[in-house]
Design a protein that fits this description.
By secondary structure, the protein is an alpha/beta fold. It contains eight helices and 14 strands. Helix 3 links the parallel strand 5 and strand 6. The chain binds ribose-5-phosphate (R5P).
Amino acid sequence: MSAIKITGQKRLVLVSGRAHMQLAEDIAAELGSELVHTDARTFANGEIYTRFDESIRGCDMFVIQSHTSPINEWLMEQLIMIDAAKRASAKRITVVAPFYPYARQDKKGRGREPISARLIADLFKAAGADRIMSVDLHAAQIQGFFDGPVDHLFAMPVLLEHFRSQLDPANLTVVSPDMGRVRVADVWSDKLGAPLAIIHKRRDPLVPNQVSVHEIVGEVEGRVCLLVDDLIDTGRTIAKAAEALKAYGATGVVVAATHAVFSDPATEILQSDFIDRVVVTDTLPVPEEKRWDRLTVLPIAPLIARAIREVFDDGSVTSLFDGAA
Ligand code: R5P
């Protein structure tokens, strides 16, 4: 019996939801490619329709969406795109979600709460995703919520590169704004050869986005403090931390965060005199009206593009980080 053989080549296809087209276009440009155009519409009652303009049969497909506000809208759009890709016979579908939605709800803090980060992973799976790629998950264990490969990328090399030439380790303290960030801040402190300090932050479980600082552990007096966090939402965590650091005698406060969620009133309170500089990446769109002179937005597209290339080539995503995390 003679077998039928084809010598087909793998085909990489990039598509994007409408949330942050600039990032998707930047990723495509880094890869020397173009996005496959997607016809996306929202009907009068809020239902979303998507259709890819060309055949994607048998392709290695990367469905990019940046989960900015309105987050539920963009999540639904991405799920619909994954469903469309599955039904159009894409061979492998990778969700590219640079900012993983609902990542902060990763465990039950109190009875009768959801674990929304797990639900999101289940939704991606049910829609037809084979793998997920994301940057700086709020908690690394979210990787285990998805039953398939998760490429967990780290923005640290991008941010570190920016800071290395600008901060003097002899006068620098890396600061974790809460207990949840200690492990990541510890890696920063190793990389920069600077000591670590930790802020004891409290939240009222009944009031979202409200924080208070209790105490600071570590040497901050007379030093420049580099506050590192995965995300800035309303900015209250960072603002309270910066205020406390200055009260404890820090001479400067510089902030490094991956995801600029920047919900109101973030841009207003981050311009406080307690904060000298804020550096973020563009995993989420940062429109002109949310920028100010002491904010730097670094491009994340080169990192994501390299990771996509490694996945497509069956290479190594780990090799991109050289033990950075
Ligand atoms: C907390 O665990 C996170 O790492 C962030 O510090 C927090 O979610 C930021 O929220 P906000 O800017 O509203 O204080």
